[in-house]
Design a protein that fits this description.
The protein is mostly helical and 433 residues long. It is 78% helix and 0% strand. The protein has two domains: 194 residues, MFS general substrate transporter like domains (Growth Hormone, Chain: A, Up-down Bundle), CATH 1.20.1250; 224 residues, Growth Hormone, Chain: A (Up-down Bundle), CATH 1.20.1250. The longest helix has 30 residues. The chain is globular.
Amino acid sequence: MDNKVVAEDKKGIKSFPRSFWTVITMEFFERGSYYGVMSVLSIYLVMSIPNGGLGFSKINVGYIKSTITPLLYFLPILAGAMADRFGYRRMLMMAFTLMSAGYFFTSLSTSYGMVFLSLILMAVGAGFFKPIIAGTISRVTDESNSSLGFGIYYWSINLGAFIFPLLLVPYLKSLGWSYIFVMAAIGTGSMLLLNIFVYREPPKPQNTKPLIEVFKGILLVLKDYRFLLMIFIYSGFWILYFQMFDTVLYYLKDYVDMSPVNKVVNSFLGYFVQNPNWKFDTEHVTVINAGCIILLQLVVSKIVRKIPALPTMITGIALGTIGMAILSISSYAWVFIAGNIIFSIGEMTAHPKFISYVGLIAPEDKKALYQGYAFLYGVIGSGIGGILGAALYVHFVDTLHRPGMLWFIFSLIGVATIIGLLLYNRFILPREK
Protein backbone atom coordinates (compact mmCIF):
# COMPACT_ATOMS: atom_id res chain seq x y z
CA MET A 1 0.00 0.00 0.00
CA ASP A 2 1.19 3.51 -0.78
CA ASN A 3 2.83 5.22 2.22
CA LYS A 4 0.74 8.34 1.70
CA VAL A 5 -2.46 6.33 1.93
CA VAL A 6 -1.25 4.72 5.14
CA ALA A 7 -0.42 8.12 6.62
CA GLU A 8 -3.83 9.51 5.65
CA ASP A 9 -5.54 6.47 7.15
CA LYS A 10 -3.69 6.93 10.43
CA LYS A 11 -5.10 10.42 10.87
CA GLY A 12 -8.54 9.09 11.77
CA ILE A 13 -10.00 8.37 15.18
CA LYS A 14 -9.44 4.63 14.66
CA SER A 15 -5.69 5.21 14.66
CA PHE A 16 -5.58 5.79 18.42
CA PRO A 17 -4.67 2.86 20.69
CA ARG A 18 -6.59 1.82 23.81
CA SER A 19 -4.27 3.78 26.11
CA PHE A 20 -5.25 6.99 24.35
CA TRP A 21 -8.97 6.54 25.00
CA THR A 22 -8.21 5.40 28.53
CA VAL A 23 -6.42 8.64 29.42
CA ILE A 24 -9.07 10.72 27.61
CA THR A 25 -11.66 9.09 29.88
CA MET A 26 -9.46 9.77 32.90
CA GLU A 27 -9.06 13.41 31.87
CA PHE A 28 -12.81 13.86 31.40
CA PHE A 29 -13.69 12.51 34.85
CA GLU A 30 -10.79 14.22 36.62
CA ARG A 31 -11.49 17.63 35.09
CA GLY A 32 -15.24 17.21 35.54
CA SER A 33 -14.69 16.40 39.21
CA TYR A 34 -12.26 19.28 39.66
CA TYR A 35 -14.37 21.95 37.96
CA GLY A 36 -17.53 20.58 39.56
CA VAL A 37 -15.95 21.31 42.95
CA MET A 38 -14.26 24.57 41.97
CA SER A 39 -17.46 25.97 40.48
CA VAL A 40 -18.96 26.18 43.99
CA LEU A 41 -16.05 25.75 46.43
CA SER A 42 -15.58 29.40 47.40
CA ILE A 43 -19.32 29.90 47.95
CA TYR A 44 -19.57 26.74 50.05
CA LEU A 45 -16.65 27.77 52.22
CA VAL A 46 -17.99 31.28 52.98
CA MET A 47 -21.69 30.44 53.17
CA SER A 48 -23.15 30.56 56.68
CA ILE A 49 -23.44 27.31 58.61
CA PRO A 50 -27.27 27.50 58.89
CA ASN A 51 -27.42 27.66 55.08
CA GLY A 52 -25.23 24.59 54.67
CA GLY A 53 -21.81 26.21 54.29
CA LEU A 54 -18.79 26.34 56.57
CA GLY A 55 -18.84 30.03 57.47
CA PHE A 56 -15.17 30.85 56.74
CA SER A 57 -14.11 34.42 56.01
CA LYS A 58 -13.35 35.43 52.43
CA ILE A 59 -9.78 36.29 53.44
CA ASN A 60 -9.23 32.80 54.84
CA VAL A 61 -10.69 31.27 51.69
CA GLY A 62 -8.30 33.49 49.73
CA TYR A 63 -5.39 31.89 51.58
CA ILE A 64 -6.69 28.44 50.64
CA LYS A 65 -7.08 29.33 46.97
CA SER A 66 -3.69 31.07 46.85
CA THR A 67 -2.12 27.84 48.11
CA ILE A 68 -3.86 24.98 46.33
CA THR A 69 -4.06 26.48 42.82
CA PRO A 70 -0.35 27.37 42.57
CA LEU A 71 0.41 23.76 43.53
CA LEU A 72 -1.58 22.60 40.51
CA TYR A 73 0.66 24.65 38.22
CA PHE A 74 4.01 24.04 39.92
CA LEU A 75 3.96 20.31 40.71
CA PRO A 76 3.82 19.17 37.05
CA ILE A 77 7.47 20.25 36.80
CA LEU A 78 8.39 17.43 39.18
CA ALA A 79 5.64 15.04 38.13
CA GLY A 80 6.79 14.78 34.53
CA ALA A 81 10.30 13.78 35.50
CA MET A 82 9.06 11.37 38.19
CA ALA A 83 6.67 9.68 35.74
CA ASP A 84 9.52 9.10 33.29
CA ARG A 85 11.65 7.63 36.07
CA PHE A 86 9.13 5.53 38.01
CA GLY A 87 6.42 4.80 35.48
CA TYR A 88 3.16 6.43 34.46
CA ARG A 89 0.90 3.81 36.09
CA ARG A 90 2.54 4.24 39.49
CA MET A 91 2.18 8.00 39.30
CA LEU A 92 -1.47 7.69 38.26
CA MET A 93 -2.13 5.36 41.20
CA MET A 94 -0.68 7.95 43.55
CA ALA A 95 -2.45 10.87 41.87
CA PHE A 96 -5.94 9.33 41.88
CA THR A 97 -5.52 8.06 45.44
CA LEU A 98 -4.52 11.52 46.70
CA MET A 99 -7.24 13.31 44.76
CA SER A 100 -10.00 10.94 45.83
CA ALA A 101 -8.87 11.04 49.45
CA GLY A 102 -8.61 14.85 49.37
CA TYR A 103 -12.14 15.28 48.01
CA PHE A 104 -13.56 12.70 50.43
CA PHE A 105 -11.93 14.22 53.50
CA THR A 106 -13.15 17.66 52.40
CA SER A 107 -16.71 16.29 52.36
CA LEU A 108 -16.30 15.26 56.00
CA SER A 109 -14.35 18.25 57.30
CA THR A 110 -15.82 21.34 58.92
CA SER A 111 -12.80 22.95 60.61
CA TYR A 112 -10.64 25.39 58.65
CA GLY A 113 -7.43 23.44 59.23
CA MET A 114 -8.85 20.09 58.12
CA VAL A 115 -10.48 21.57 55.01
CA PHE A 116 -7.21 23.30 54.12
CA LEU A 117 -5.20 20.09 54.54
CA SER A 118 -7.75 18.02 52.62
CA LEU A 119 -7.72 20.42 49.68
CA ILE A 120 -3.91 20.48 49.67
CA LEU A 121 -4.03 16.67 49.43
CA MET A 122 -6.36 16.98 46.45
CA ALA A 123 -4.17 19.64 44.81
CA VAL A 124 -1.02 17.53 45.15
CA GLY A 125 -2.78 14.63 43.46
CA ALA A 126 -4.13 16.84 40.68
CA GLY A 127 -0.72 18.47 40.17
CA PHE A 128 0.94 15.08 39.68
CA PHE A 129 -1.87 13.94 37.39
CA LYS A 130 -1.73 16.81 34.90
CA PRO A 131 1.45 16.02 32.91
CA ILE A 132 0.92 12.24 32.79
CA ILE A 133 -2.09 12.44 30.48
CA ALA A 134 -0.38 14.79 28.04
CA GLY A 135 2.76 12.65 28.28
CA THR A 136 0.83 9.48 27.44
CA ILE A 137 -0.83 11.11 24.44
CA SER A 138 2.56 12.33 23.22
CA ARG A 139 3.94 8.80 23.39
CA VAL A 140 1.04 6.95 21.74
CA THR A 141 0.58 9.36 18.82
CA ASP A 142 2.82 10.46 15.98
CA GLU A 143 2.97 13.29 13.44
CA SER A 144 0.01 11.89 11.52
CA ASN A 145 -2.49 11.97 14.38
CA SER A 146 -1.04 13.98 17.29
CA SER A 147 -2.89 17.16 16.29
CA LEU A 148 -6.23 15.36 16.35
CA GLY A 149 -5.25 13.57 19.55
CA PHE A 150 -4.48 16.74 21.45
CA GLY A 151 -7.60 18.36 20.03
CA ILE A 152 -9.70 15.56 21.52
CA TYR A 153 -7.73 15.94 24.77
CA TYR A 154 -8.51 19.67 24.91
CA TRP A 155 -12.20 19.04 24.23
CA SER A 156 -12.36 16.37 26.96
CA ILE A 157 -11.14 18.94 29.48
CA ASN A 158 -13.81 21.47 28.58
CA LEU A 159 -16.52 18.85 28.15
CA GLY A 160 -15.92 17.73 31.74
CA ALA A 161 -15.90 21.35 32.91
CA PHE A 162 -19.20 21.87 31.06
CA ILE A 163 -21.22 18.75 31.91
CA PHE A 164 -20.40 18.22 35.59
CA PRO A 165 -21.28 21.75 36.82
CA LEU A 166 -24.30 21.93 34.50
CA LEU A 167 -25.94 18.59 35.30
CA LEU A 168 -24.47 17.01 38.43
CA VAL A 169 -23.66 19.91 40.73
CA PRO A 170 -27.18 21.43 40.92
CA TYR A 171 -28.71 18.05 41.75
CA LEU A 172 -26.07 17.14 44.33
CA LYS A 173 -26.30 20.57 45.90
CA SER A 174 -30.02 20.01 46.47
CA LEU A 175 -29.13 16.88 48.46
CA GLY A 176 -26.36 18.55 50.45
CA TRP A 177 -23.16 20.41 49.61
CA SER A 178 -20.96 17.58 50.88
CA TYR A 179 -22.29 15.32 48.12
CA ILE A 180 -20.44 17.44 45.53
CA PHE A 181 -17.15 16.42 47.13
CA VAL A 182 -18.28 12.82 47.41
CA MET A 183 -19.06 12.91 43.68
CA ALA A 184 -15.55 14.18 42.98
CA ALA A 185 -14.06 11.50 45.24
CA ILE A 186 -15.95 8.82 43.31
CA GLY A 187 -15.18 10.41 39.94
CA THR A 188 -11.43 10.36 40.58
CA GLY A 189 -11.28 7.23 42.74
CA SER A 190 -13.09 5.12 40.15
CA MET A 191 -10.32 5.94 37.69
CA LEU A 192 -8.05 3.68 39.77
CA LEU A 193 -9.93 0.76 38.24
CA LEU A 194 -9.18 2.01 34.73
CA ASN A 195 -5.55 2.43 35.70
CA ILE A 196 -5.29 -1.08 37.14
CA PHE A 197 -7.22 -3.06 34.54
CA VAL A 198 -7.15 -1.06 31.29
CA TYR A 199 -4.27 1.45 31.17
CA ARG A 200 -1.03 0.27 29.62
CA GLU A 201 2.33 1.88 30.28
CA PRO A 202 3.49 3.85 27.20
CA PRO A 203 7.03 3.32 25.88
CA LYS A 204 9.55 5.12 28.08
CA PRO A 205 11.93 7.65 26.57
CA GLN A 206 15.44 6.34 25.99
CA ASN A 207 16.93 8.93 28.32
CA THR A 208 14.93 9.72 31.44
CA LYS A 209 15.65 13.00 33.19
CA PRO A 210 16.89 12.69 36.81
CA LEU A 211 15.16 14.95 39.32
CA ILE A 212 18.41 16.82 39.86
CA GLU A 213 18.20 17.91 36.22
CA VAL A 214 14.72 19.29 36.87
CA PHE A 215 16.05 21.48 39.67
CA LYS A 216 18.96 22.56 37.48
CA GLY A 217 16.40 23.56 34.85
CA ILE A 218 14.53 25.64 37.43
CA LEU A 219 17.73 27.46 38.38
CA LEU A 220 18.59 28.03 34.74
CA VAL A 221 15.20 29.58 34.04
CA LEU A 222 15.31 31.67 37.23
CA LYS A 223 18.54 33.26 36.00
CA ASP A 224 16.81 34.54 32.86
CA TYR A 225 15.26 37.75 34.12
CA ARG A 226 13.79 38.56 30.69
CA PHE A 227 11.78 35.35 30.63
CA LEU A 228 10.65 35.70 34.24
CA LEU A 229 9.61 39.30 33.62
CA MET A 230 7.50 38.26 30.65
CA ILE A 231 5.85 35.49 32.69
CA PHE A 232 5.18 37.93 35.54
CA ILE A 233 3.61 40.48 33.17
CA TYR A 234 1.40 37.88 31.47
CA SER A 235 0.31 36.50 34.84
CA GLY A 236 -1.54 39.79 35.36
CA PHE A 237 -4.20 38.50 32.99
CA TRP A 238 -4.49 35.31 35.02
CA ILE A 239 -5.10 37.29 38.17
CA LEU A 240 -8.29 38.30 36.36
CA TYR A 241 -9.01 34.74 35.21
CA PHE A 242 -8.91 33.24 38.70
CA GLN A 243 -11.52 35.73 39.88
CA MET A 244 -14.02 33.60 37.95
CA PHE A 245 -13.78 31.04 40.76
CA ASP A 246 -13.91 33.50 43.65
CA THR A 247 -14.95 37.15 43.52
CA VAL A 248 -17.21 36.74 40.47
CA LEU A 249 -19.11 34.03 42.34
CA TYR A 250 -19.41 36.20 45.48
CA TYR A 251 -20.68 39.08 43.33
CA LEU A 252 -23.25 36.85 41.63
CA LYS A 253 -24.61 35.73 44.98
CA ASP A 254 -24.63 39.19 46.55
CA TYR A 255 -25.71 41.50 43.72
CA VAL A 256 -27.02 39.81 40.56
CA ASP A 257 -30.66 38.82 40.09
CA MET A 258 -30.63 36.15 37.39
CA SER A 259 -34.43 36.04 36.99
CA PRO A 260 -34.35 37.44 33.42
CA VAL A 261 -31.99 34.66 32.34
CA ASN A 262 -33.99 32.02 34.18
CA LYS A 263 -37.17 33.19 32.44
CA VAL A 264 -35.67 32.89 28.96
CA VAL A 265 -34.11 29.47 29.63
CA ASN A 266 -37.29 28.08 31.19
CA SER A 267 -39.34 29.38 28.27
CA PHE A 268 -37.09 27.41 25.95
CA LEU A 269 -37.14 24.30 28.15
CA GLY A 270 -40.94 24.56 28.22
CA TYR A 271 -41.01 23.23 24.65
CA PHE A 272 -39.56 19.94 25.93
CA VAL A 273 -40.73 19.51 29.55
CA GLN A 274 -43.66 20.71 31.61
CA ASN A 275 -43.17 23.44 34.21
CA PRO A 276 -39.36 23.71 34.06
CA ASN A 277 -37.74 25.39 37.04
CA TRP A 278 -34.11 25.88 35.97
CA LYS A 279 -32.11 28.48 37.89
CA PHE A 280 -28.77 30.08 37.06
CA ASP A 281 -26.41 29.68 40.00
CA THR A 282 -22.70 29.96 40.79
CA GLU A 283 -21.73 26.67 39.11
CA HIS A 284 -22.99 27.99 35.78
CA VAL A 285 -20.21 30.58 35.58
CA THR A 286 -17.85 27.69 34.84
CA VAL A 287 -20.40 26.36 32.34
CA ILE A 288 -20.32 29.67 30.44
CA ASN A 289 -16.52 29.57 30.15
CA ALA A 290 -16.31 25.91 29.11
CA GLY A 291 -19.29 26.21 26.75
CA CYS A 292 -17.77 29.19 24.96
CA ILE A 293 -14.50 27.31 24.45
CA ILE A 294 -16.29 24.21 23.14
CA LEU A 295 -18.32 26.28 20.66
CA LEU A 296 -15.86 28.97 19.62
CA GLN A 297 -12.24 27.85 20.13
CA LEU A 298 -11.85 26.41 16.62
CA VAL A 299 -13.43 29.53 15.09
CA VAL A 300 -11.24 31.90 17.10
CA SER A 301 -8.09 29.88 16.38
CA LYS A 302 -8.87 29.96 12.66
CA ILE A 303 -9.38 33.74 12.69
CA VAL A 304 -6.07 34.49 14.46
CA ARG A 305 -3.92 31.70 12.99
CA LYS A 306 -1.96 34.03 10.70
CA ILE A 307 -1.77 37.01 13.07
CA PRO A 308 1.51 37.42 15.01
CA ALA A 309 1.57 36.18 18.59
CA LEU A 310 1.98 39.43 20.54
CA PRO A 311 -0.83 41.42 18.84
CA THR A 312 -3.14 38.42 19.27
CA MET A 313 -2.23 38.10 22.95
CA ILE A 314 -2.88 41.79 23.51
CA THR A 315 -6.22 41.57 21.69
CA GLY A 316 -7.25 38.62 23.85
CA ILE A 317 -6.19 40.33 27.07
CA ALA A 318 -8.03 43.49 25.94
CA LEU A 319 -11.20 41.45 25.41
CA GLY A 320 -10.79 39.86 28.82
CA THR A 321 -10.29 43.29 30.36
CA ILE A 322 -13.42 44.59 28.63
CA GLY A 323 -15.33 41.58 29.91
CA MET A 324 -14.23 42.37 33.45
CA ALA A 325 -15.00 46.09 33.01
CA ILE A 326 -18.53 45.30 31.79
CA LEU A 327 -19.29 43.89 35.23
CA SER A 328 -18.73 47.38 36.68
CA ILE A 329 -21.45 48.87 34.46
CA SER A 330 -24.46 47.14 35.94
CA SER A 331 -25.54 44.15 38.02
CA TYR A 332 -28.23 43.32 35.44
CA ALA A 333 -28.29 39.61 34.60
CA TRP A 334 -27.61 39.89 30.88
CA VAL A 335 -24.77 42.33 31.51
CA PHE A 336 -23.23 39.75 33.82
CA ILE A 337 -23.60 37.03 31.15
CA ALA A 338 -22.14 39.30 28.45
CA GLY A 339 -19.11 40.13 30.60
CA ASN A 340 -18.38 36.47 31.21
CA ILE A 341 -18.75 35.53 27.54
CA ILE A 342 -16.46 38.34 26.36
CA PHE A 343 -13.89 37.39 28.99
CA SER A 344 -13.99 33.75 27.82
CA ILE A 345 -13.43 34.81 24.22
CA GLY A 346 -10.48 36.87 25.37
CA GLU A 347 -9.01 33.88 27.20
CA MET A 348 -9.26 31.55 24.20
CA THR A 349 -7.75 34.26 21.99
CA ALA A 350 -4.77 35.10 24.20
CA HIS A 351 -3.60 31.86 25.72
CA PRO A 352 -2.82 29.66 22.68
CA LYS A 353 -0.76 32.51 21.26
CA PHE A 354 1.08 32.87 24.57
CA ILE A 355 2.49 29.37 24.06
CA SER A 356 3.62 30.45 20.61
CA TYR A 357 5.16 33.66 22.00
CA VAL A 358 7.22 31.69 24.52
CA GLY A 359 8.65 29.69 21.62
CA LEU A 360 9.59 32.90 19.84
CA ILE A 361 11.42 34.56 22.73
CA ALA A 362 13.12 31.45 24.14
CA PRO A 363 16.80 30.83 23.29
CA GLU A 364 17.11 28.61 20.23
CA ASP A 365 18.74 25.76 22.13
CA LYS A 366 16.37 25.90 25.14
CA LYS A 367 12.90 26.17 23.60
CA ALA A 368 11.62 22.92 25.08
CA LEU A 369 12.91 23.85 28.53
CA TYR A 370 11.25 27.26 28.44
CA GLN A 371 7.94 25.82 27.24
CA GLY A 372 8.03 23.50 30.24
CA TYR A 373 8.29 26.41 32.67
CA ALA A 374 5.94 28.74 30.84
CA PHE A 375 3.01 27.67 33.03
CA LEU A 376 4.55 29.59 35.95
CA TYR A 377 2.02 32.23 34.90
CA GLY A 378 -0.55 30.08 36.73
CA VAL A 379 1.57 29.88 39.88
CA ILE A 380 1.91 33.67 40.00
CA GLY A 381 -1.59 34.53 38.79
CA SER A 382 -3.40 32.21 41.20
CA GLY A 383 -1.01 32.89 44.07
CA ILE A 384 -1.67 36.61 43.88
CA GLY A 385 -5.23 36.44 42.58
CA GLY A 386 -6.72 34.38 45.40
CA ILE A 387 -5.76 36.59 48.32
CA LEU A 388 -5.84 39.88 46.36
CA GLY A 389 -9.35 39.20 45.11
CA ALA A 390 -10.57 38.32 48.60
CA ALA A 391 -9.00 41.43 50.17
CA LEU A 392 -10.39 43.77 47.49
CA TYR A 393 -13.85 42.21 47.69
CA VAL A 394 -14.00 42.58 51.46
CA HIS A 395 -12.88 46.22 51.26
CA PHE A 396 -14.79 47.55 48.25
CA VAL A 397 -17.88 45.34 48.25
CA ASP A 398 -18.52 44.06 51.77
CA THR A 399 -17.36 47.25 53.52
CA LEU A 400 -17.87 50.13 51.07
CA HIS A 401 -20.63 48.49 48.95
CA ARG A 402 -18.95 49.63 45.74
CA PRO A 403 -18.65 46.53 43.52
CA GLY A 404 -18.08 48.69 40.46
CA MET A 405 -14.78 49.85 41.92
CA LEU A 406 -13.69 46.22 42.38
CA TRP A 407 -14.15 45.45 38.69
CA PHE A 408 -12.58 48.77 37.72
CA ILE A 409 -9.42 47.86 39.66
CA PHE A 410 -9.23 44.44 38.02
CA SER A 411 -9.71 46.12 34.65
CA LEU A 412 -6.75 48.35 35.43
CA ILE A 413 -4.67 45.20 36.07
CA GLY A 414 -5.65 44.06 32.58
CA VAL A 415 -4.64 47.42 31.09
CA ALA A 416 -1.34 47.28 33.01
CA THR A 417 -0.73 43.81 31.57
CA ILE A 418 -1.21 45.10 28.03
CA ILE A 419 1.08 48.08 28.61
CA GLY A 420 3.64 45.81 30.24
CA LEU A 421 3.71 43.46 27.24
CA LEU A 422 4.11 46.39 24.84
CA LEU A 423 6.98 47.84 26.86
CA TYR A 424 8.56 44.41 27.22
CA ASN A 425 8.45 43.83 23.48
CA ARG A 426 9.87 47.30 22.82
CA PHE A 427 12.63 47.59 25.41
CA ILE A 428 13.36 44.24 27.13
CA LEU A 429 13.04 41.54 24.49
CA PRO A 430 16.49 41.02 22.91
CA ARG A 431 16.62 41.71 19.19
CA GLU A 432 18.64 39.89 16.59
CA LYS A 433 21.25 42.12 15.06
